[in-house]
Amino acid sequence: MQTGPRPRKPVIGIESSCDETACAILAPDGVILAELVLSQQADHAPFGGVVPEIAARAHLAHLPGLVQQAMREAGLHFGDLGGVAASCGPGLIGGLIVGAGMAKGLALGAGLPFVAVNHLEAHALTARLPGLVAGGAPFPYLLLLLSGGHCQCVAVDGVGRYRRLGGTIDDAVGEAFDKVGKLLGLPWPGGPALERLAATGDAARHPFPQPLRGRAGCDFSFSGLKTAVAQRIAGLPSPLPPQEAADIAAGFQRAVAAVLADRADHAMAMMPEARLLVVAGGVAANAAVRAALSGAAAAHGVALVAPPVRLCTDNAVMVAWAGIERLRLGLADALDVAPRPRWPLAELSAG
Ligand code: KG4
Ligand code: ZN
Question: Can you tell me whether residue 34 is helix, strand or coil?
């Protein structure tokens, strides 16, 4: 970690930790000057999940063009920038190497400070982008990260200051949506399609177990729920009648929403100083999940902050913003920092 100049100029952010290639440029006050995301979903869909090698090659093919396009849209030259930020972990190492390499090249070529952004910190700090909460979300707050790869409750005390209150002991919640989507014959990723199917179903017909509900702490578990769905489907006619599939989707979604509300309830009790509950990750797009969390937050007199879906899923706006937050504190990184496939929030350096 190096101390560097505070940004008085725009910062460019690069995201390549999973299957979104993204680039964004933000003014030092957080105003978005360019925002581009290229999803690789179509490349991975035939394989029913993200293929790391395909992801890395796609990042390599698309990132340079995306950076040039973002610079054009912002109407900037590299010399106009005040810093370069890139996701350097956790995530798929091939993609991280591509993004970090590109960012370091830019920083070196243009003589700019470089920030190695922890992808989870970027999700965590999104709520502080101007415009989401009047005046920017103040620390401390509670973060519920609900994505395909991550599922955890985090106390956000400040930039670089995180306490993990709980997390999944098996599958991430998005992974559970994807696996149940597969059981129901839905295209990958299962979450969005399952939510649409559940809208036409009767959740009461299939009351599924709600793992860890009521248990102390705020850990999560979803593999037992997925197994219960598989067993229910195995006992029904094949192919599954469409109404039956919709009822199962609705029952599963209700169980997940109830579990998340219960875990959030416990997390808020563990962190009474938090006045905000922030959700992030692709599953935060789910309306039933948002409704359940909003009820849980209201019961604690806590405000729920759910950023727009495009800022909940993987994006580069959050990476550039995390870069700005760090540069504001004078925190930059050396160019020899290596990307990390595993990088728990608790190991971050504080501002
Ligand atoms: O945060 P994200 O875009 O990528 C990472 O996993 O990092 O999250 C993707 C996950 C997938 O598992 C997807 O099925 C799930 O979020 N998801 C949803 C919905 N939209 C996306 N799950 C439930 N309901 C949705 N509407
Ligand atoms: Zn993510």
Answer: strand
Q: What is the pLDDT of residues 76-118, one digit of tens each?
A: 999 999 999 999 999 999 999 999 999 999 999 999 999 999 9
In one-letter notation, the amino acid at residue 299 is A
Measured in Å, residue 76 CA sits from the centre of ligand 1 at 33
Closest CA to ligand 1's atom 14: 191
Which ligand 1 atom is the nearest neighbour of the CA of 190?
14
Q: Give yes or no for residue 148 CB within 6 A of ligand 1.
A: yes
What is the DSSP code (8-state) at residue 112? -
And the tokens for 287? 């309306």
Going from the Cα of 324 to the center of ligand 2, the distance in angstroms, rounded, reads 18
- pLDDT, position 343: 96
Task: Respond yes or no on whether the N-terminal peptide bond of residue 239 is cis (omega within 30° of 0).
Answer: yes
Q: What's the 173 CA to ligand 1 centre distance in angstroms?
A: 9
Burial of 79 (0-12, 13-18, 19+ CB in 10 A): exposed
Span 221-251, pLDDT tens digits: 999 999 999 999 999 999 999 999 999 999 9
